[in-house]
Amino acid sequence: MRDFNDQGFTLIEVVIALALSMVTLGAIYSIYLSQVKAQVVREDNLDMQQHARVAMDLIIHELTMAGYDPRHVNNDTNVGNNFDGIVYHPTHLIINADLNGNGSPTDPNEAIQFSHDPATFILRRDTGGGRQPLAEHIETFSIRYFNRDGQLTTESQHIRQIELRIKARTEKSDPRYPNNGGYRTVVLQSRITPRNLGL
User: Fold this and answer.
1) How many angstroms separate the first and last alpha carbons of the chain?
2) Using the 8-state DSSP alphabet, how is residue 140 labeled?
3) What's the predicted TM-score (pTM) here?
4) Is 53 exposed, middle or buried (0-12, 13-18, 19+ CB in 10 A)?
5) Are 169 and 184 within 8 A, CB to CB?
6) Using CB atoms within 10 A of its CB, is residue 165 exposed (0-12), middle (13-18) or buried (19+)?
């Protein structure tokens, strides 16, 4: 026999339960969406830092060979470099090294040029086969040249140290970030003394 004391839910209780469920689901979705956006920003920041570090590390590595001449390594005092290890240029970094000892840095991979394309935010590297992309999302690339006394110089034969500054930015703009049009940035700076320039 049916017990009439058993009661179900009223329509108002069902509506209240549904409303609370929707509020809870909305809050959970909002938290999830916030976490996804934060993860995208973290990954974009990581990519930006990696691009800048890889570019800086490669340039520093190339600079360590600037002015290299194996004839000096063999202590042949009758010969000297007939080229500048670093050629002054206000916006490009030009590195020369005579890797095969033929007296001229004109073979592939002996004359290396780094240049920045501000329109596309690409840092490029040219070893004789064209300006190949090295790093993307590079906002600025600047070089300062110093002589043996630590003074700024524009004369290639007097360059003994180089100061590099790379400013990279994130690939995507973050509307929640108020600076720089929403692009986060990182700046790497290094002062290098190539060992073959005779400081």
Assistant:
1) 105
2) E
3) 0.77
4) middle
5) yes
6) middle
- Tally Cβ neighbours within 10 Å of residue 1: 3
The domain limits of the chain are: 35-192
Counting Cα atoms < 13 Å in the Cβ hemisphere of 33 gives: 6
Q: Could you identify the residue written with the tokens 């839910």?
A: 9
Residues contacting 138, CB < 8 A, separation 6+: 51, 52, 55, 116, 121, 122, 123, 166, 167, 168, 169
Question: Tens of pLDDT along the chain (199 residues)?
Answer: 455 555 677 888 888 888 888 888 888 888 888 888 888 888 888 999 998 999 999 999 999 999 888 776 554 444 556 788 999 999 999 999 988 888 778 888 889 999 999 999 999 999 988 899 999 999 999 999 999 999 999 999 999 999 999 999 998 888 888 888 889 999 999 999 998 887 5
Q: Find out whether 123 and 134 touch, Cβ atoms under 8 Å.
A: yes
**Token pair 């906002």 is at which residue?**
139
